[in-house]
Amino acid sequence: MLSNRSMPACAVVPELAYPDVEAATTWLCGAFGFRPRLRVGSHRAQLVMGGGAVVLTELAPGEARLPSEAAGFAHSVMVRVHDIDGHYAHARKRGAEILRAPADYPYGERQYAARDPGGHVWVFSETIADLAPEEWGGTVEPEA
Predict the structure, then answer these.
(1) 134 has which bridge partners?
(2) 15-59+68-133 belongs to which homologous superfamily?
(3) Residue 134 region, left (φ>0) first, then alpha (ψ -120 to 50), else beta?
(4) Dmax over Cα atoms in the chain, in whole Å?
(5) At 8, is the pLDDT very low, low, confident or very high (cuts 50, 70, 90)?
(6) What pTM, to 2 d.p., does this model score?
(7) Which of 25, 35, 88, 127 has its CA 20 to 30 A from that of 144?
């Protein structure tokens, strides 16, 4: 793959739409710890954290809102962090709507879920144990 200084280096980059990209950028950086990488006017921004990235795009006036605004959520973006409890406390203090408090899961992760002001759901995860998938009921698929 060619390198392009206008694009994040990671292979998967979610694009999330917000009615106000500048406000969403400020909020996501302040509450969740992202860092702005690139801005395109006031209608597009690239944010980075660790080795990952997300692109914020402008939600057109009258464009449908997300199904995740209803009770529960149909999709989310997962971000791996260090110190999940500290991250959770910071996000909560900054106004993140907590959907699921931090909890330990049998596959070796501690996670919490939050909804941002744009209606997008974020799942934050910290590894707490290195477990083989077979230890908790997972199945590893053979490589093609």
Answers:
(1) none
(2) 2,3-Dihydroxybiphenyl 1,2-Dioxygenase, domain 1 (3.10.180.10)
(3) alpha
(4) 49
(5) confident
(6) 0.79
(7) 127
